[in-house]
Design goal:
heterodimer; A: about 350 residues; alpha+beta; Uridine Diphospho-n-acetylenolpyruvylglucosamine Reductase, domain 2; five-stranded antiparallel sheet; B: about 170 residues; Ubiquitin-like (UB roll); DNA polymerase, domain 1; 2 domains; 5 helices; binds FE2/S2 (inorganic) cluster
């Protein structure tokens, strides 16, 4: 680990000041990603700003029925919170699908949003990687890329975002609350993480998200949701627990008299951010749940998918996972994260 | 003390309560809790397996909940109550979870065992396991290279059952 200056933040403004003054400073929350990457010399912050003692550890119900989950609420506390279980069980389930109990005790809401890719080349400072060292090339393109993206990749990076929690938040249309040198702002979840290449910043895989210099995440807001029963988080991976998703699906449906009135589907493990296609979701509206319509939806959302070689299998795996997840959501039989057979 | 760029050093005053003993320490901020325990504090019961959060060998209890000590900076735990495997027994009296591991032969080489036992005690304190499936899932953060999983689950279930009976008998 490199040598750094350690600062305990005394307020959100203090943290923002330190981060604004030193672009190479990093926030420390649970540390489960930052400390790991520092041990590999992938992250080499000059200053570590420990925010763990800031008052961002509460879950509160807001007047409009939304829930605000503070940036420092641990993943375990969020997943087992009664209000989260009742208001957005999809989020609780997605969190419990991730990491291990020990890691979920340490990991925070803000840190989970900000965690970096698990691309093997990104983790190896001796390998080329445009995300870690812009302009050095991408080891994964033409290399070992079993865990990489099938959607939204660019010519310079094919990494995926590894979070499960974020796939749930994407399906729930959450809002990320941030504070920075210019004050507070809200970022719609779909605008928080970015694809490696977008219109605003071009091909910049070094930027995982749209947070600006000096900004920190203070919480996420999850709007009041209707997916009380008709939801699921289905995660497929190389072993049944304690492994990142190869493909995951967060699905929520609203049904009235057996007809789908709204649908929300986010995919994990397949792109640089949780992947949604709202126009594809529209085709489910007004339909009666059936294998045929779910398959047509899967074909549609995956129509731009391209394999990179080792990960070609993800396209058919994703297609089948989407159909299975929508069937689970429609029948109100969400995947239980401690049950290792798939219903 | 603040960071001195010339000597590249910083010592942070940090108080940790470990197995009931108060330690007033001055720690370099890049020291992990695991390295502090095993090095200066000579509490080598806590094991280093992967050093990256991937195996659970380094599991300790902080305020009763389990954490991977390899991924925690010791300075960030200022004020915490930490229990390691050395702190579970009372004198010669083993913790019921330690007894159950022996009873059920829940180890072979024993390297993962301190982490497994701390994790199992954390699992009981956290209170989210209600079935064998739950036990298996909620112990999945502890890898056993020898594959003693079946007996580990038996040991945890045994203590979980004793607790339920104790509550029912009250
Ligand atoms: C072995 C292993 C397996 C895992 N498996 C999974 C899995 O299956 N699914 C999954 O989803 N995750 C998994 N994880 C990842 C885990 O969920 C993340 O490491 C964790 O959520 C990060 O949270 P943290 O609080 O520890 O972040 P930290 O490590 O403290 O920080 C991570 C990053 O976020 C920044 N940051 C933290 N808080 C803020 C904030 N409030 N504002 C701005 N920036 C901030 C930090 O500067 C840093 O860059 C796994 C991790 C490990 C080690
Ligand atoms: S896929 Fe992205 S993160 Fe991985 S090596 Fe290529 S540029 Fe780096
Ligand atoms: S040594 Fe900490 S998890 Fe392996
Ligand atoms: S007993 Fe040998 S690793 Fe578990």
């Amino acid at each position: 680990m490199n040598r750094f200056s350690y600062v305990k933040a005394t307020s959100v403004d203090h943290a923002v000041d330190v981060l604004t003054a030193d672009p190479a400073a990093k926030v420390l929350a649970g540390g489960t990603n930052l400390v790991d990457l520092m041990k590999y010399d992938v992250e080499r912050p000059t200053t570590v700003v420990d925010i763990k003692r800031l008052p961002l550890g509460d879950i509160e119900a807001l007047d409009d029925g939304a829930l605000r989950i503070g940036a420092l609420v641990s993943n375990a506390d969020a997943a087992y919170d009664r209000q989260v279980e009742e208001n957005c069980p999809l989020l609780a389930s997605a969190i419990l699908a991730g990491a291990s109990p020990q890691l979920r005790n340490a990991a925070t809401t803000g840190g989970n949003l900000m965690q970096r890719t698990r691309c093997y080349y990104f983790y190896d400072p001796s390998a080329p990687c445009n995300k870690r060292d812009p302009g050095t090339g991408c080891g994964a393109i033409g290399g070992v890329n079993r865990i990489h993206a099938i959607l939204g990749a660019s010519a310079s990076c094919i990494a995926t975002h590894p979070s499960d929690m974020c796939v749930g938040l994407a399906a729930l249309d959450a809002v990320v609350e941030v504070s920075g040198p210019q004050g507070k702002r809200d970022i719609a979840f779909e605008d928080f993480h970015r694809l490696p290449k977008d219109d605003e910043r071009g091909d910049r895989p070094d930027l995982d998200n749209t947070l600006q210099l000096g900004e920190i995440v203070t919480g996420v807001r999850v709007p009041r949701q209707a997916f009380g029963q008709n939801y699921t988080y289905l995660k497929l991976r190389d072993r049944l627990s304690y492994a990142f998703a190869l493909v995951s699906v967060a699905a929520g449906l609203t049904l009235e008299n057996g007809v789908i009135t709204s649908a929300s589907v986010a995919l994990g493990g397949v792109a640089h951010k949780p992947w949604r296609d709202k126009r594809a979701e529209d085709m489910l509206k007004g339909q009666t749940p059936s294998r045929e319509i779910f398959t047509a939806f899967a074909e549609r959302i995956l129509s731009p998918a391209v394999g990179q070689g080792d990960n070609d299998f993800k396209i058919s795996l994703a297609r089948r996972a989407i159909v299975r997840a929508l069937a689970q959501a429609a029948s109100g039989t969400p995947q239980r994260q401690s049950q290792k057979s798939y219903a | 003390m603040s960071y001195d760029p010339d000597t590249q050093s910083q010592l942070c005053p940090t108080t940790l309560h470990i197995n009931g003993v108060r330690h007033d320490l001055e720690i370099e901020p890049w020291t992990t809790l695991l390295d502090l325990l095993r090095g200066p504090l000579a509490l080598t019961g806590t094991k280093k397996g992967c050093d990256h959060g991937q195996c659970g060998a380094c599991t300790v209890l902080i305020d009763g909940m389990r954490y991977n000590s390899c991924l925690l900076l010791a300075v960030s735990q200022d004020g915490a109550e930490i229990t390691t495997i050395e702190g579970l027994s009372t004198g010669d009296q083993l913790h019921p979870m330690q007894e159950a591991f022996i009873e059920h032969d829940a180890f072979q080489c024993g390297y993962c065992t301190p982490g497994q036992i701390c994790s199992a005690v954390g699992l009981l304190n956290e209170g989210h396991a209600h079935s064998r499936e739950d036990v298996r899932e909620l112990m999945s953060g502890n890898i056993c290279r020898c594959g003693a999983y079946v007996n580990i689950a038996d040991a945890v279930e045994d203590v979980m059952g004793q607790q339920t009976h104790a509550v029912a008998a009250q």
